[in-house]
Design brief:
heterodimer; B: mainly beta; eight-stranded mixed β-sheet; 1 helix; elongated
């Protein structure tokens, strides 16, 4: 895994950085809509803040996601600036699954802006946008492996669950900063109840996705791809630990009027957010620098034969 | 109206998923010269064979000193399963080919292999 990181060139590092920002902004935009729809205990101030955050994140996500096309074109031209502006390469990348994924994401992000509309219909248009945004992650890279339909649905649901989780950070932080701890307690309680389903979904969908991508082979976990994935799992275990502490200790304390618990909740949510950034960064590195190992490559015979070919890397 | 749009979007996405063909990786099957090959003379051509059509978007031939050597290609960056390129006459030394490409299924790939001319 470390040799994979060391061998990355400047364009690949730029790609990892831009992908991380794109993932984060996209998930905040979509997650804010999901939270707006599902958390009924959000007060009016928090609802207005969520609307602003969602639209701002959607605009940032659109700009940064669109940048991935010239970055990919640059990679294909050997990491040069000329590649990033080459019309032929830009056309090739736009016509590829990455281009389709980004196009669908831009449509979804545009629909999310409907959350700003005063009419209630805007809410459902924005929700459709959030679903499309999450589905866009299933239209690229190794998500296109067979069983494609099932893998696509698993990834979409996995991203929706993650978006819900991330979307709740800002409202929870805001509520925990208010004098009225009962408001924060109520919101944390409602989030905790719904997050149980999100966590179960995240774990099941994530495990099944990993299984399909690695053909359910334990040996795949020892590849660079598996090692990056293991980092995600370890960090996610940390997120779950904090979430458990929030639900079992801090939420009851907040509902009981404990102001110290509000400060602890803010700290806990900030750490959770930092851990999620690490997960997104790892995912960006994983999808830029590695690919799920293929069964045939894992066999000794194939490995010996492949020595004549020189190293090939799938850079989707 | 919104429900219809939402349903249309969901159905459209589902059909999109269902309509997909079986995607596979664009594995490189062979290259000539083989990685690590020791040649007596400069190779007449450098070839790569892929499992599925691939557009080679970048290829370079460098010697150990980092000098780039000319390659003549005639594929016009079209999708090919067999990619050939003709190098200029090469002096003795060790050479590395680096390539990048975009496979028919949208996967971007890269790789490298080396050979040596001993004379």
């Amino acid at each position: 895994m470390f040799s994979t990181l060391v061998s990355a060139d400047g364009v690949q590092w730029l790609s990892i950085l831009v992908k991380t920002i794109a993932y984060g902004a996209t998930l905040v935009a979509a997650g804010s809509v999901v939270v707006f729809v599902t958390l009924r205990s959000l007060d009016n101030d928090n609802r207005r803040a969520v609307k602003r955050l969602s639209s701002g994140a959607a605009l940032l996500a659109a700009i940064v996601s669109a940048l991935l096309i010239p970055i990919q074109a640059s990679f294909l031209m050997g990491g040069t600036l000329a590649g990033a502006t080459n019309p032929m390469l830009l056309g090739m990348v736009s016509d590829s699954p990455l281009g389709s994924s980004i196009f669908l994401r831009l449509v979804g992000l545009g629909l999310i802006l409907a959350l700003l509309l005063p009419h209630r219909a805007g809410l459902w248009v924005a929700m459709a946008g959030a679903v499309l945004v999450c589905a866009s992650f299933a239209l690229q890279g190794h998500a296109l492996k067979d069983p494609r339909l099932l893998l696509g649905l698993l990834i979409t649901l996995h991203i929706l669950g993650l978006a819900f989780w991330i979307g709740a950070f800002a409202p929870l932080l805001r509520a925990a900063g208010l004098e009225d701890t009962a408001q924060a307690g109520g919101l944390a309680h409602e989030f905790g109840e719904q997050a149980l389903w999100a966590v179960a979904g995240l774990v099941v969908m994530g495990a099944m996705t990993l299984g399909f991508l690695t053909n359910w082979r334990l040996a795949a976990l020892f590849s660079p791809y598996g090692q990056f994935f293991a980092i995600k799992l370890v960090v996610f275990a940390g997120v779950l630990g904090l979430a458990g502490w929030n639900k079992l200790r801090l939420t009851p304390a907040l509902r009981g009027g404990d102001t110290k618990a509000a400060k602890q909740l803010r700290g806990s949510v900030r750490i959770e957010a930092a851990l999620i950034v690490i997960i997104l960064l790892t995912t960006a590195a994983l999808t830029t620098l590695t690919s799920p190992p293929r069964p045939e490559v894992a066999t000794l015979e194939r490995a010996q034969n492949s020595a004549d070919l020189g190293p090939n890397k799938d850079r989707t | 109206m919104i429900k219809i749009r939402l349903a249309t979007a969901v159905i459209g996405f589902t059909l999109f998923l269902l309509s997909g063909v079986a995607f596979a990786h664009a594995e490189k099957e062979a290259n000539l010269p083989a990685d690590g090959a020791v040649l007596q003379t400069s190779p007449e051509k450098i070839s790569m064979t892929f499992e599925m059509p691939m557009r080679i978007t970048f290829i370079s031939l460098r010697d150990d000193a980092g000098r780039e050597h000319d390659l003549t290609r005639t594929d016009n960056m079209q999708l090919v399963t067999e990619f050939d390129t003709v190098p200029a006459a090469l002096p003795l030394g060790r050479y590395t080919i680096e390539w990048r490409g975009l496979a028919e299924d949208g996967h971007s790939m890269e790789g490298d292999f080396s050979f040596e001319i001993e004379g």
